[in-house]
Amino acid sequence: MKDVRVVAFDCDGVLFDTLEANRHYYNHILQHFGRPPMNPEQLRFVHAHTVQQALEHLLGDDAQRQAAHVFRKTIDYGGFLKHLTIEPHLVALLDWMRGKFKTAIATNRTDTMNRLLREFGLADRFDLVVTSLDVERPKPFPDPLFKILAQFKAAPRQSVFVGDSDVDETTARAAGVPFVAYRNPSLQADHHIDSLKDLRPLLER
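Above: the chain sequence. Below: its structure as tokens.
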């Protein structure tokens, strides 16, 4: 991977273990509207998609979806941070990458991303953060990766994307960007890693 200049990361499941935070967040919304908690399939879906897509998936009634969007804007996301953990070795990896690579995030999060980075002291650790609000078409469309490539004037082969879901795999393939699968051996990827510390040897090749 000697030509790589840009390393992009998914957020949920890669930079942070956010599964329980997402479970509590969306169940809080469902409870407000008298709905039962999510089942495992619903949790997998919301974990990888935008909040708009998640609420469409969870709430069949259009009026209730609109009300849910209004309600969620009254929620203080800080209350869910206790259910979230930063991935081991992330900070050490970013320290090593500084000055060697451009770093970016391509996430389907919306207005919670900046709060999340601030809370964990990562706001200045990435050169670019692309959320679903920053592109016309979020993942699995390639637009977030295209925006990152354009920002750094890099070709697809000069970058890698680290993700953990089929949404990330599809995004990377659509953009022509080499894909590193994180803790998900079922994905089709150029490389598989089980820890962020495993990314450094790949980038040093």
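The chain has two domains: 6-17+84-204, 19-82.
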